[in-house]
Amino acid sequence: MKNIVRALSLVLMLCMVVSLAACGDTSDPQNTGSQNTGTSAPSTTGVATEEEKEKLEIPADANYADGDTPYEFRILGLNNGAYTHIDLTAEEILEEPINDAVYERNSLLEEKLGVKIVASIDSPGNVLATARNNIQADNDAYDLYMPPMNSAVVLATEGHLVNLLEVPYLDLEKSWWDQNVNRDLVIKNKLYFTTGEISILDDDLTFIITFNKDALEEKLPDVDPYQMVKDYKWTLDNLLEIVKDLNEDTNSNGKMDETDSWGFMLNSNNSTIFYQAAGERLVKPDGEGGFKFGLDESRALAVTEKVLDLMLDNEFFRTDKMGTADTQLAKFMDGSVMFRATVFSVARQQRGMEMNFGILPNPMFDEEQKQYYTPTSSKGYLPGVCVPSCASDLERTGIITEALAYYSSEYLTPAFYEASIKGVLTRDEESNDMLDIIFNTKVYDLGYIYDFAGKGFILREFIQNESKNFASEFDKVKGSIESAISDVMDTFEF
Predict the structure, then answer these.
(1) Secondary structure of 224-253 as H, E, C letters
(2) How far apart are CA 354 and CA 369, in angstroms?
(3) What are residue 245's phi and psi, to 5 degrees?
(4) Maximum Cα–Cα distance for the chain, whole Å?
(5) C-beta pairs of 136-139 under 8 Å, 24+ apart in sequence
(6) Contact 316, 244 (CB under 8 A)
(7) How far is CA 219 from CA 77, 202, 241, 338, in A?
(8) Which of 78, 238, 310, 399 has its CA 20 to 30 A from that of 271?
(9) Could you give the dihedral angle defined by the CA atoms of residues 269, 272, 277 and 282, in that order, rounded to the nearest 10 degrees?
């Protein structure tokens, strides 16, 4: 989210106001309890003034009500287990931050534009099938579709979606749209799906690392991961240096198993995550508006070698081999796992954790990188905002979608932070800095999303097969991946 500082400032200032009101006499710092730790008040320099704030630029007279009946703006979103759209509609105020923000946002849209947001949710496969069937039949059943990005690319290559860069009043350069999408997913001046503050799932589905602060301070009191991040020393090598000696055979059975204490918990897909966090991509821009095979360049090969060495030469708690989602969460929460690679939504599940924990971006390849990159779960989970080619009124769709995104930044973003951070991530001030890095540095790898030649998970395959023969394998698959890329590039000529 691009309004992170503003949202955090709003949440923190609200906390301060409540604290000061409750305490009465604020002359003594001790009277302010945990809200005053001797530091200065939260800075408001990140809060935009009315003059600086970006404006919603849509026609002032836009209104789509038919008399007293609002136009129903229909959205088909995802029902995908833990990653389900809860940010589209709300029936009433429930004193729950996200629900209430959605209700207030939608009420405002109805008041200002004469629009009622009507949403359906379905499984990823059904969203794809429904979108394809409706569009092929020229059935304008939905104004927006929000399938997983890997389904959105299917619809795009089949010619079922509108180029968002040509939708009237949809201004994708505004901060409420993720600018990293513009950088990573535009092909030949065409963009068929995007994301941003219109949904919370783009943030919930960012890959992060959590760590047990209390246990780390006890075991390694001189190690400060937050400072390492700030000093650009948070690298794969330094992460390994921290966790390599933290495994303990606590049940004394002579081997490490899921009942023991572990330094690091991750899974085989972290090979792809670490690779992307190093700034590398499975496919890369070719300088001509298209993309090319990216695995065989010298730095990419060096990154691949380091990632495979890290994951195959060291013993970590592998969640694709041990435990269940519940037991894995329990192990981190009871302190028997020091570092855990996960997604942001899972970190929010740690709300009830008694021990203090922190959140970090994924590590850089080396200290020369000087830039963090945050991979996203854009294959199978993270939804893309899509406009169907059978849309009956593109201007109406553009105006309403732009307004929906804008008012989401005004209502949904602060609520997301309130629900996610209070009692979870603001256990220390450093977490706010980490969130700023994480949410502003997202990356979207077209090779991962498109799964060219079925090799979007090629790095994971090496981990699962316990193989380091990547150079020869890259040579084998390069031709088929390049052919698949060429086919996709040809479809974007229409």
Answers:
(1) CHHHHHHCCCCEHHHHHHHHCCCCECCCCC
(2) 35
(3) -110, 20
(4) 76
(5) 136/160, 138/390, 139/390
(6) no
(7) 45, 35, 13, 10
(8) 78
(9) -160
| pLDDT tens for each residue of 202-233 | 999 999 999 999 999 999 999 999 999 999 99
More confident residue, 2 or 253: 253
Is residue 179 scored above 50 in pLDDT? yes
Model pTM score: 0.88
Burial 52-61 (b: 16+ CB within 10 A, else e): eeeebebeee
Structure tokens at 314: 């060291």
Q: Residue 287: its pLDDT value, please? A: 85
Note the pLDDT of residue 428.
73
Q: Per residue in 111-151, pLDDT tens? A: 999 999 999 999 999 999 999 999 999 999 999 999 999 99
- Residue 339: name the closest of 275, 278, 268, 266 by CA: 266
How far apart are alpha carbons 12 and 161 in whole angstroms? 41
- Partnered with residue 339 across adjacent β-strands are 211, 264
Rounded to whole angstroms, how far apart are CA atoms 454 and 405? Answer: 33
Q: For the purposes of burial, counting CB atoms within 10 Å of the CB of 297, is it exposed (0-12), middle (13-18) or buried (19 or more)?
A: middle
> Within a 10 A sphere around the Cβ of 17, how many other Cβ atoms?
11
Strand, coil or helix: 154: helix
At 149, the amino acid letter reads M
Number of residues assigned to the chain: 494
Which residue matches tokens 């890290």?
Answer: 310
8 Å CB contact between 46 and 8: yes
Sequence-distant (6+) residues with CB within 8 A of 185 are: 191, 193, 194, 444, 446, 449
CA-closest candidate to residue 238, choices 339, 336, 320, 335: 339
DSSP 132: H
Which residues pair with residue 284 across a beta bridge?
292
CA distance 207 to 441: 11
